[in-house]
Amino acid sequence: MVVRTAEGQTVEDWGRLLADLYESHAVRALRFAYLLSGAREVAEDLTQEAFLAAFDRLDTLRDPRALPGYLRTTILNLARAHFRRQRIERLAIARHVRLARPSQEQPPDVGERERLWHALQRLPFRQRAALVLRHYEDLSEKDTARALGTSVSGLKALAFRGTQALRAQLDTQEGSDE
User: 109-138 in b/e burial notation, b at 16+ Cβ within 10 A?
Assistant: First the structure.
């Protein structure tokens, strides 16, 4: 017995399509999630959740070329929710225990890439997301603003503040290395 979807595709065809889509977009989606989260395990979870959501809505996607944008937006929203949840959990623990959060500073690394990576992770989520979307994902200002749910001028302000904060962190790190 052959099972067919409403469009006449077999379940086997559908599975092959999903596998092809995953292979085509998984690496880039995982990199994006990793840049936002800074943790491989979190990035893998975000990517998996985004693909599940995308596959669930695949039949309503009018243009298959829109899948990368859909994945990017889904990962961004999932990351935002993850960090919001994480922040709330930290506040609840701090309130409960009445202790200050321990310092998360790490000794400065010699490599410029590592220094930049750590500085990027210290930025507030929206500033980090603005910089990653603009400079890593190479989205236009308009597309980045849309992904973040803000205006182009709001995006410019986020990116400016993020860049300034990165510079200040790197200058501070450089001063402490000397």
Answer: eeeeeebeebbbeebebbbbbbbbbbeebe
By CB atoms closer than 10 A (0-12, 13-18, 19+), residue 43 is buried
Q: How confident is the model at residue 149 (pLDDT cuts 50, 70, 90)?
A: very high
Q: Do residues 90 and 101 make contact, with C-beta atoms less than 8 angstroms apart?
A: yes
C-alpha distances in Å from residue 49, one per residue of 40, 56, 58, 137: 14, 11, 14, 20
Q: Is 107 helix (H, G, I), strand (E, B) or coil?
A: coil
Chain mean pLDDT for the chain: 82
Q: Is the pTM of this model over 0.85?
A: no
Q: How confident is the model at residue 107 (pLDDT cuts 50, 70, 90)?
A: very low
Identify which of 119, 94, 122 has the alpha carbon closest to the alpha carbon of residue 109. Answer: 119
